[in-house]
Amino acid sequence: MENLILAIESSCDETAASVIRNGRIILSNIINSQIDIHSVYGGVVPEIAARNHVENIAQVVDLALKKADVSVNELSAVAVTNGPGLVGPLLVGVSYAKALSIAAKKPLIAVNHMHGHISANYLIDNEGDIEINPPFLCLVVSGGHTNIIIAEDYDKYRILARTRDDAAGEAFDKIARAIGLGYPGGPKIDKIARLGNENAIIFPRAKVSGSEYDFSFSGLKSAVLNYINSREMKNEEINVPDVAASFQKAAVDALSHNCIRIALKHNLGTFALAGGVAANTKLRNTLKELCLQNGIRFKCPSMLLCTDNAAMIGAAAYHKFLKKDFADMSLNAVPNLEL
């Protein structure tokens, strides 16, 4: 039986809508990004983001349906991100999805944004792309989250390790600003690091006392900022590509080695990446190589599906649809919704 889900994502600065067939096949995936608007301010301004979502959401949804060649009547359900994220942007998506659900008389499905990132791995978006199913180990790494989880089922996750302070993506953004790269920091560090020597500066890899696998990035962030300040006080030149490459190597080393150790300890033969930082080429290549060396299947979404998008929300919603796990009209935005 063919199930078609229209998914809406508006948790931050992308207005996105997608139509997904049976939780795997992308019929459309429309993303309206506000990066150019917010780059002027050095980061996302919530009120500006919310206003732009209001202006764009109707046409983005219409375009997703048109590209998928699907009418509202053919839909099985309407899905929407209800957290975590910025409350204003979330409310725009939730309100629109609720209204559409009522008007079209279709079930409403609420999706945790981070569950969406994990579920991006279920989507088949390249020829020859491998299919994965639970259980598998997953590194969820973004601007707000750094967790190693076991996906025990499509909607059941167990956290094995987490950051004790800063998320990896937040550290990337802060260091990018410190070395003058601006917003968004992750892609810019990724790009300029290719021009630098990753062994030029040895930055620390933190170990958390009393926890074998948890992460800490505040020390790494402080070490990089101290290095920059020290060079500036001495009027010494700062080699930006070297700083970016050395910082990136330290962050990726910390992330990747813990993942492989846990995968081997729990005898999990499949490993997946998820979240915005999963688009980092150094992280992707390092984990792919480590998985290959240890006989572990590796899955990572395409670059487009690592960043915020609605296709991943549709993939997550499909399994809730099968269980008839529907939301009612009391659904609200939950900015701090837990993984």
What is the structure about, briefly put?
The chain has about 350 residues and is an alpha/beta fold. Helices cover about 40% and strands about 20% of the residues.
Q: Overview of this structure, please?
A:
This protein has 339 residues and is of the alpha/beta class. The protein has helices spanning 35-39, 46-68, 87-104, 113-119, 168-178, 185-193, 218-233, 240-265, 281-293, 303-306, 311-322; strands spanning 4-9, 14-21, 25-33, 77-83, 108-112, 136-141, 146-153, 156-162, 270-274, 297-299. The strands form 2 sheets. The chain has a 5-stranded mixed beta sheet, sandwiched between helices. Strands 8-7-6-9-10 form a 5-stranded mixed beta sheet, sandwiched between helices. Helix 6 (185-193) packs across helix 8 (240-265). It starts with a strand and ends in a 17-residue tail after the last helix.
